[in-house]
Amino acid sequence: MASRQASHADSWYTGNAIRLDQELSRWLASVKPSSEDDYDPPVPGTKAVIAPHAGYSYSGPAAAWAYKSIDTTGIKRVFVLGPSHHVYLDGCALTRCAQYETPLGTLPIDVETIKGLKATGQFTEMDLQTDEDEHSIEMHLPYVRKVFEGQDISIVPILVGAINYDKEISYGKLLAPHLAREDTFFVISSDFCHWGLRFQYTFYYPKPPPSSVPPVRLSRADASSASLKEHPIHASISALDHEAMELLTIPPFTASQAHHEFAQYLARTKNTICGRHPIGVLLGALAALEQQGKAPKLKWVRYEQSSPCVTVKDSSVSYASAFVKF
Q: Helix H segments across the chain?
């Protein structure tokens, strides 16, 4: 079986092991919640995190807030669910590789778990080219290797396609028994809003929501709009993203309610949250575990933007980090 190379090293993040280790250590050390945050990492019993997957110069510091949450005690296996950016999938795909390389060391694949998932007949396989082209899983591997430093862990990478709501529920039910295991952890890979003409997404709230003023799509003709000064684009993006984050917070919502509300929100806003389907699968799994008596908690601990958009010519990507515990 092949070994997947760290194909985005030296471009999306440094391939120098010493420098990478220093960067990750610095970002993790910089996670200093305030007393108002109600967040004291690491969080005992953490079962999953949601974290971004952009180049480390953009999202590395935000991702640290998710990874600092992790209580690594007893964890032997880490599932990493990432969205497919380059190939169309109406399902989920598994790796054919035996191990994934990172500049910080090798991460072995849990081959037996992969075989078990494949035996369900619900998964396809990635070829090596697809595996190495995709960044959404790879960008988490240095953090996984760093946080679980010195521990004997294996990983289960899953590429999640453009699946519908019902399939998110189905895959969630299928993965729920794995999430329930005390020795298993889940990483959910997602950036939040990709805003700007280059992303073909310029959703804008002229007034801070909730408001009777409807949202609009900005164009180059709106460059001098008075509302842009009253309610800056970056503030509108933040409001848009925080709507999603609030709907995904458990409690007050149950996982089933959060999943439904999140789907309705995406249909209404078309927010370009690239990991919406991995998030949907996580919610499907949590909803299945709720039916078995589990009481999951999902809490957001960090939100950042790559740059503050002021005019319609600007662009940005948002990054949000959360943890899940039972």
A: 17-29, 56-67, 111-119, 128-133, 141-147, 165-180, 227-230, 233-247, 255-269, 276-290
**Residue 223: is it exposed, middle or buried by C-beta count within 10 angstroms (0-12/13-18/19+)?**
exposed
Amino acid in position 83: P
Of 195, 220, 221, 217, give the one whose Cα is nearest residue 206: 217
Q: Please write the tens of the pLDDT for every residue from 224-273.
A: 666 788 899 999 999 999 999 999 999 999 999 999 999 999 999 999 99
Omega before 251 cis (within 30°)? yes
CA atoms 99, 286, 248, 263: torsion sign: positive
Contact 21, 14 (CB under 8 A): no
Give phi and psi for 42, each to the nearest 5.
-70, 155
Q: Is the pTM of this model over 0.90?
A: yes
State the helix-helix crossing angle for 255-269 and 165-180, rounded to 10 degrees: 140
pLDDT, tens digit, 9 for 90 and up, residues 10-57: 889 999 999 999 999 999 999 998 888 889 999 999 999 999 999 899
Helix (H, G, I), strand (E, B) or coil at 137: coil
